[in-house]
């Protein structure tokens, strides 16, 4: 019942292994999703490729002011990174609430999105930053907008033979702020019942010029709340604007009832959490001098 | 009276072994040629077994033994009612019931073999709701109920496994004299013990045909008896050895995998190991009973309780297991630590086609306390009396009689309440969305028999052999402290013998908050016996009368002439080489107070003797998010009357551990059933609290010196879990003014209650 284990030393080697072995090859980064599935016999795995030995995937820095996150970067590396803490607060808050500390020492951000759970903790933040996903194959390399990356519960939009090598998050100008709130009954090691991230950019008068809201665990994939965003753009921060955004977001979602919560509760919580996270992001934008 | 070892905050004897990873748990043991066993389980809640075909599985290379009911003695077992076959016979009664067992050279082969066993089932209509099960036209779980032997005067019919009633005073008259009568119904879900180490055992047969079983267990003795009974073996052919245990909380008292290991080992002539997976634990072991409890209480304007009627319905699932005991115990505890002159308590233990339930810390008390302590809060608020004050007004005093009429000696409930009132600064102002709640508990330390012997070694040190299975709670350390204190030795001079039916004397089990009190009594008496023998020998050697000698600090010394003395080491040499042989003190002990006075009407009660009562009170402060329904416990204070804390550090550990499990019971834990199948089958969906879900817990100890206990001690184990859920719910009411009567207090339930 074992599997064949590969540990390539370069991206080139990795993508040629993917090409050679086809869909039988499973990519392992942190292993916190893959190994659980193997243990629970949810999948049968014959070949595993561990990408943590590839130096090029261990990048975490600012490049032309974009933030680059390599595919082998763990959640705790993100949480501890000073630039993430300063400029990408929603991502820090998402990464910091994934699993337990021990899990965060292994789990990667790229793995979290490739696993494509609707409740993925880092997905809403990456959606509000409009991150780009770089996918490399034997033949070429392409960039996928994060909003197009998720294809369904547990499904991403990678083509056969493609490996995600990195994420790029656009530079953050001054007077912008972001936040992520995860709602779960247990305060650690739990799955989000609802998770919402918000990003706000303000003009010099304090009006919102850009607003992005993204939600987890309320649809088959992590999703943006485009209509709610429209209600905020051009507005000033008021109780009414926040409440309206929450109400619209709740109408936009398609939650399900499952063992963790009912659809009704999830919808109600989207309203509450959207309002709260938007206010936090807004306050951060007002206070930012980046 | 000054103690030298008792009352000390001593670290665990086995602490270093555990924190350095050297402790050997069951899955750390492996033997040459050992096989791995797996159980085939029923996929249906209720079905007739038409045929089982094991031919293909037997033909699989690597499979060494397969057993079904046909290969086992045709008998049923159970601690109270003998209704449970080891492997399903004729029909299955719950999803997860073992139908066949396989031993193979590897786990993978064993699992593959399970998939090759063909069982032909014919579905039967199932009953999953205990209220429906109690109706006369419900599907019947056990057709031959009356044929099952019971160890107590059981009252039963249909799907009612047992009915217990306890009645005293005049209930009608009591309600007539009340100024107000309250009636409320409360429910609780099934909850799992979630001991971090899952159940497991290994069995091996020697050339004499004698079986040795290594097990993660709460009682080697009970395991030995049950294995012998279920597999038709004399107890002399069964030896059970305890490995280190990673928690039990009641789940490891009765047999789990042991008999399958033995049966497979006998058939294959090779050692067999079975370790349950977490999923098997959650779906097919014995969780806490779900319950529906209706309480009607009559009360005077000043808050005095005058009458109470309680109907408890506990869903025992497919088999009785400890159910009748749990319902009996819950019924006995239901009134709480209060004086109530007129009462009638009816406890129903009901069969359904769900997993058989069993013992879990609290043993029926948490369900009853959830109902009664919640209702007392409703009453206090309705009458405008402080919830802590109404408890003080009705709390028992020493010399009072409790439910049933047993005499009480030490009663520290009022001291506990006063301690938390002061410790919590109960009447101080609270911030917005915060509330405080209080709840009380009484619980027994006792039941059944314990024994011990103490031998004095040649160098004057001692070995203590006592049937007291340490399952992580620290009883080895406590037993060593009791023996050392009585013998006049230091803790380093005492060795506690590991649990092994070949060498440790009988003890019923690590249950019922009983080790410190029951096994502790046996140890103290055995040590006193050994000490007296040391004194008698010294009297002969020194030529002084024994009653003029005392033994302490490893020396027997003359009371009048302190220069006349002889050390234990010298006495050890004399006893081993010159006179009398090794000194061995022994004691076997049972509690002997009558449980019921003659004017109390009792039917169907499952225990003959009880024990000493311990008491406790908890206060909590919670913060409730009224938009999301999330509850956070921000402050927790526990106070427990343990008689005397033999090791205060251990008492605090038990208080904090019990409180933490109580937080899970209050806020998260719910073994959810869908179509008869448990769907909360991982620790992601069956949520127990993490460190950040529980505040720093301040644990206060109240000492009342129980005259029947060793050095005044009673016990602590179970009580700290019991009052947590009602204390939290009462605090939620205090914070946001809504009352939830169903556990757990999920965010959705809180929001629903807010909407009403």
Give the assembly state of these chains: heterodimer
Which consecutive residue ranges of chain B, at least 5 long each, have pLDDT under 50? Answer: none
Quickly count the domains of chain B.
3
What is the percent of helical residues of chain B?
A: 25-40%
CATH architecture of the domain at 177-285 in chain A: 2-Layer Sandwich
Mean pLDDT of chain A: 95
**What CATH first level of the domain at 177-285 in chain A would be assigned?**
Alpha Beta
Please state the overall shape of chain A, judged from the principal axes of the Cα atoms.
globular
State the CATH superfamily name of the domain at 177-285 in chain A.
Answer: CO dehydrogenase flavoprotein, C-terminal domain
Tell how many strands the DSSP assignment of chain B holds. Answer: 29
Q: SS-based structural class of chain A?
A: alpha+beta
Strand content of chain A: 15-25%
What structural class is derived from the secondary structure elements of chain B?
Answer: alpha+beta
Radius of gyration of chain B, taken over Cα atoms and rounded to an integer in Å: 27 Å
State the end-to-end distance of chain A: 53 Å
| CATH homologous superfamily descriptor of the largest domain in chain B | Aldehyde oxidase/xanthine dehydrogenase, molybdopterin binding domain
* CATH topology (level 3) name of the domain at 177-285 in chain A: Enolase-like, domain 1
Residues in β-strands, percent of chain B: 25-35%
Are there runs of chain A of 5+ residues with pLDDT below 50, and where?
none
Mean pLDDT of chain B: 96
Largest interface summary? A-B, 19 and 22 residues
């Amino acid at each position: 019942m074992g599997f064949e284990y590969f540990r390539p030393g370069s991206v080139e080697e990795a993508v040629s292994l993917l090409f050679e072995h086809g869909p039988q090859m499973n990519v392992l980064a942190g292993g916190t999703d893959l190994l659980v599935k193997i243990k629970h016999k949810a999948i049968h795995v014959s070949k595993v490729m561990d990408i943590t030995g590839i130096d090029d995937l261990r990048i975490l820095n600012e490049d032309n002011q974009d933030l680059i996150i390599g595919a082998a970067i763990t959640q705790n590396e993100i949480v501890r990174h000073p630039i993430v803490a300063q400029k990408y607060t929603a991502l820090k808050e998402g990464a910091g609430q994934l699993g337990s500390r021990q899990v965060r020492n292994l789990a990667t951000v790229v793995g979290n999105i490739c696993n494509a759970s609707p409740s993925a903790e880092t997905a809403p933040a990456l959606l509000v930053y409009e991150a780009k996903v770089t996918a490399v194959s034997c033949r070429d390399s392409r960039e996928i907008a994060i909003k197009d990356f998720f294809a369904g519960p547990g499904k991403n939009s990678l083509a056969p033979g493609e490996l995600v090598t990195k994420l790029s998050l656009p530079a953050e100008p001054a007077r912008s702020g972001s936040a992520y709130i995860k709602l779960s009954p247990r305060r650690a090691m739990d799955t989000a019942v609802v998770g919402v991230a918000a990003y706000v950019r303000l003009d010099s008068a304090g009006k919102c010029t850009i607003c992005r809201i993204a939600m987890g665990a309320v649809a088959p994939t992590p999703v943006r709340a485009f209509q709610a965003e429209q209600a905020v753009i051009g507005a000033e921060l008021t109780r009414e604007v926040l409440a309206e955004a929450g109400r619209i977001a709740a109408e936009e979602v398609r939650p399900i009832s499952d063992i963790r919560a009912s659809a009704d509760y999830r919808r109600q919580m989207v309203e509450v959490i959207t309002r709260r996270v938007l206010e936090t992001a807004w306050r951060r934008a007002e206070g930012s001098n980046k | 009276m000054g103690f030298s070892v008792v009352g000390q905050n001593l670290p665990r004897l086995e602490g270093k072994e555990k924190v350095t990873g050297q402790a050997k748990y069951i899955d750390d043991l492996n033997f040459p040629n050992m096989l791995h066993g797996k159980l085939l389980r029923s996929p249906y809640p209720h079905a007739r077994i038409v045929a089982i075909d094991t031919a293909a599985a037997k033909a699989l290379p690597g499979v060494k033994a397969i057993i079904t009911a046909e290969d086992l003695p045709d008998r049923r077992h159970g601690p109270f009612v003998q209704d449970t076959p080891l492997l399903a016979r004729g029909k299955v009664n719950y999803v997860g019931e073992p139908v066949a067992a396989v031993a193979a050279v590897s786990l993978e082969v064993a699992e593959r073999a399970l998939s090759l066993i063909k069982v032909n089932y014919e579905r039967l209509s199932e009953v999953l709701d205990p209220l429906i099960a109690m109706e006369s036209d419900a599907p019947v779980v056990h057709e031959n109920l009356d044929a099952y032997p019971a160890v107590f005067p059981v009252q039963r019919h249909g799907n009612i496994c047992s009915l217990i009633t306890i009645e005293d005073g005049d209930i009608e008259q009591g309600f007539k004299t009340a100024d107000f009568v309250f009636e409320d119904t409360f429910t609780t879900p099934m909850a799992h013990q979630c001991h971090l180490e899952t159940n497991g055992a290994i069995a091996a047969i020697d050339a004499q045909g004698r079986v040795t079983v290594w097990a993660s267990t709460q009682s080697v003795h009970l395991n030995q008896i049950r294995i012998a009974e279920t597999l038709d073996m004399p107890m002399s052919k069964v030896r059970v050895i305890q490995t280190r245990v990673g928690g039990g909380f009641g789940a490891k008292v009765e047999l789990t995998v042991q008999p399958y290991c033995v049966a497979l080992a006998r058939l294959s002539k090779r050692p067999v190991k079975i370790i349950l997976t977490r999923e098997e634990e959650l779906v097919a072991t014995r969780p806490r009973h779900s319950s529906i409890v209706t309480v009607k209480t009559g009360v005077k304007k000043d808050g005095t309780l005058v009458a109470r009627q309680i109907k408890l319905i506990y869903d025992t699932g497919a088999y009785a297991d400890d159910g009748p005991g749990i319902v009996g115990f819950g019924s006995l505890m239901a009134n709480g630590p209060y004086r109530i002159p007129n009462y009638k308590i009816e406890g129903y233990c009901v069969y359904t086609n769900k997993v058989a339930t069993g013992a879990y810390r609290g043993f029926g008390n948490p369900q009853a306390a959830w109902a009664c302590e919640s209702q007392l809060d409703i009453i206090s608020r309705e009458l405008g009396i402080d919830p802590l004050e109404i408890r003080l007004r009705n709390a028992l005093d020493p010399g009072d009689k409790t439910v049933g009429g047993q005499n009480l000696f030490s009663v520290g409930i009022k001291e506990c309440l006063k301690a938390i009132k002061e410790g919590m600064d109960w009447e101080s102002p609270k911030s917005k969305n915060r509330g405080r709640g209080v709840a009380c508990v009484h619980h027994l330390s006792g039941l059944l028999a314990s024994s011990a012997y103490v031998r004095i070694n040649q160098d004057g040190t001692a070995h203590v052999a006592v049937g007291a299975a340490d399952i992580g709670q620290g009883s080895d350390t406590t037993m060593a402290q009791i023996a050392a204190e009585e013998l006049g030795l230091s803790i380093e001079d005492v060795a506690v013998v590991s649990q092994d039916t070949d060498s440790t004397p009988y003890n019923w089990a690590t249950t019922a908050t009983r080790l410190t009190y029951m096994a502790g009594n046996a140890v103290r008496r055995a040590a006193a016996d050994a000490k007296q023998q040391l004194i008698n020998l010294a009297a002969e050697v020194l030529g002084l009368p024994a009653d003029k000698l005392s033994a302490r600090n490893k020396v027997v010394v003359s009371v009048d002439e302190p220069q006349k003395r002889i050390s234990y080491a010298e006495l050890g040499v004399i006893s081993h080489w010159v006179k009398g042989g090794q000194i061995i003190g022994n004691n076997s002990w049972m509690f002997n107070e009558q449980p019921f006075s003659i004017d109390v009407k009792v039917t169907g009660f499952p225990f003959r003797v009880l024990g000493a009562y311990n008491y406790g009170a908890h206060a909590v402060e919670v913060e409730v998010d009224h938009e999301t329904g999330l509850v956070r416990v921000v402050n927790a204070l526990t106070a427990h009357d343990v008689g005397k804390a033999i090791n205060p550090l251990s008492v605090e550990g038990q208080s904090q551990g019990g409180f933490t499990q109580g937080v899970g019971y209050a806020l998260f834990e719910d073994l959810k059933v869908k179509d008869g199948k448990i769907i909360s089958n991982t620790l992601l969906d069956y949520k127990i609290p993490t460190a950040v879900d529980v505040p720093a817990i301040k644990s206060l100890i109240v000492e009342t010196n129980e005259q029947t206990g060793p050095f005044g001690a009673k016990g602590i184990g179970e009580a700290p879990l019991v009052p947590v859920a009602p204390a939290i719910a009462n605090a939620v009411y205090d914070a946001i003014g809504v009352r939830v009567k169903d556990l757990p207090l999920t965010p959705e339930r809180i929001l629903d209650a807010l909407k009403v």
